[in-house]
């Protein structure tokens, strides 16, 4: 059988809409995930046993069950809690933000822990409160160190958004799949999608590698 | 939420119009999950080691093949890879072979899932093995060669035994990942654990999705915890005294 990628080009408008959804889901989950993940990381490092215990339970729980299962959880649970039928496209935003926070948290925690003790003591000696110390001394350095890791995790996240296909959302894969079944062009569509995912992820990971070389702090 | 009818006994109920029970569905699902993950892990470990070693070899073309493999398999989502193996590959192969794959291949979903998941995870294992080899002091390789070992023997008896020990912690995460990732195979119809959960909470719906999802999540947690413990045990047993620090 011949591969005819022109079929992908013909339906480019619909496919691009799907890609746009994938990208916006990735961007939203990254922003919320990193914000929430930062608080989780700080909570995990807290001296209060209840706070650190709660945060590590959250993180370990989400890191132990498959993303696909979490997608089903929220797809079914959210309408039950809110009483609103929101559909796969919307519930995925909540799912990914909550799920990815656990993964970002671990990266950020490693970043915070990599800051030399002297920096923390110096900040406190300057008269910063612990919160100010975190805000002005620790986090800026930590984020600079872990930026490449955060971006790499975001590339993984972008690829993982393809899983929303299973609850029927119209992401890049979902859009291509719908066209494929309408036009009976399964082979072309799946190969086309693979090429699109590869091109985006590969170029982003090359960019991250370049950035890593640029910003690495020489110690 | 207030109208939700809790019933934790739901998995003990009989499936309507059959002589099966829901917990039996979950048990077979768990069986397929474990079988798929373990079989795929064998492929991932063997192929991943080979690719990882290729990437550390002095030969340009060989290390390029290794790099290309890793980049391709890491930058395409798993679900797309499974679709390509399951739906696309039979169309592109010679007709006779393609037809065999579509009609006569034993356990088509299972074989495809094992194969696809294995190749996908191999790229990740390769990266870990490569990191492990590169983490060794250069003197180790030279010492091996100076003792009269061939390059192959140096890898076999000097480098790999140490490299594997160094990368046990990241390999543990990959081993846990392969169990989680096996859930993706539901997209090609493998009746693993998440697929069964979807069946029970879906069309047949005894309308108690929360209880079923909780039980299934607990099963995954137990699997992840067991894998973690087994790997920690292996790590402890294979530790080289004085070389790798700590280990809990």
TrEMBL record, chain A:
Keywords: Cell membrane, Membrane, Transmembrane, Transmembrane helix, Transport. It is found in: Cell inner membrane; Cell membrane. Its main location: membrane. The chain crosses the membrane at residues 20-43, 64-86, 146-167, 187-204. Pfam families: BPD_transp_1 (PF00528). Residues 19-208 form the ABC transmembrane type-1 domain. The keyword Transmembrane helix applies. SUPFAM superfamilies: MetI-like (SSF161098). Gene3D superfamilies: MetI-like. It comes from the Bacteria. It is a multi-pass membrane protein. The keyword DNA-binding does not apply. Belongs to the binding-protein-dependent transport system permease family. HisMQ subfamily. This is Amino acid ABC transporter permease. It comes from Leeia speluncae.
From TrEMBL, chain B:
SUPFAM superfamilies: MetI-like. Keywords: Cell membrane, Membrane, Transmembrane, Transmembrane helix, Transport. It is a multi-pass membrane protein. Residues 30-231 form the ABC transmembrane type-1 domain. The chain crosses the membrane at residues 30-54, 66-87, 212-231. InterPro entries: AA_ABC_transptr_permease_3TM (IPR010065), ArtM/GltK/GlnP/TcyL/YhdX-like (IPR043429), MetI-like (IPR000515), MetI-like_sf (IPR035906). It is found in: Cell inner membrane; Cell membrane. NCBIfam families: HEQRo_perm_3TM. This is Amino acid ABC transporter permease. The lineage of its organism: Bacteria, Pseudomonadati, Pseudomonadota, Betaproteobacteria, Neisseriales.
